[in-house]
Amino acid sequence: MESVRTFERRRRVRGAPYSLEQFQQKYALQSGEAEDLYARFGPSSIELDLLMAAKRRKPCFSSLSADFELR
């Protein structure tokens, strides 16, 4: 049995919001795990990054190197 919970976020979003796809790619998560965490903790990049640090999950290398300029 799967329950559907709807709720309103009571806190402001801290930091730039992630899209579900950005969050999933950054931490190389499977879609089910990413969707669950995103639904429970919201799109806040600060809160999701803190959560993943607490779980000792580091961002994947490709997301870290995406901002570097290729020569």
Tell me what you see in this structure.
With 71 residues, the chain is mainly α. It has a domain at 20-60. The chain is 45% helix and 0% strand. The protein is built from 4 helices and no strands. The longest helix has 11 residues, at 31-41. The radius of gyration is 14 Å and the shape is globular. It starts with 19 loop residues before the first helix and ends in a 7-residue tail after the last helix.
User: How many whole angstroms does the radius of gyration measure?
Assistant: 14 Å
Indicate the low-confidence ranges by residue numbers.
none
Distance between the termini: 53 Å
> What composes the largest sheet?
none
With helices defined by DSSP (H or I, 4 residues minimum), what is the helix count? Answer: 4
For the secondary structure, the number of strands is 0
Shape: globular
On the 0 to 100 scale, the average pLDDT is 81
> How much helicity do the residues have?
40-55%
Helix/strand structural class: mainly alpha
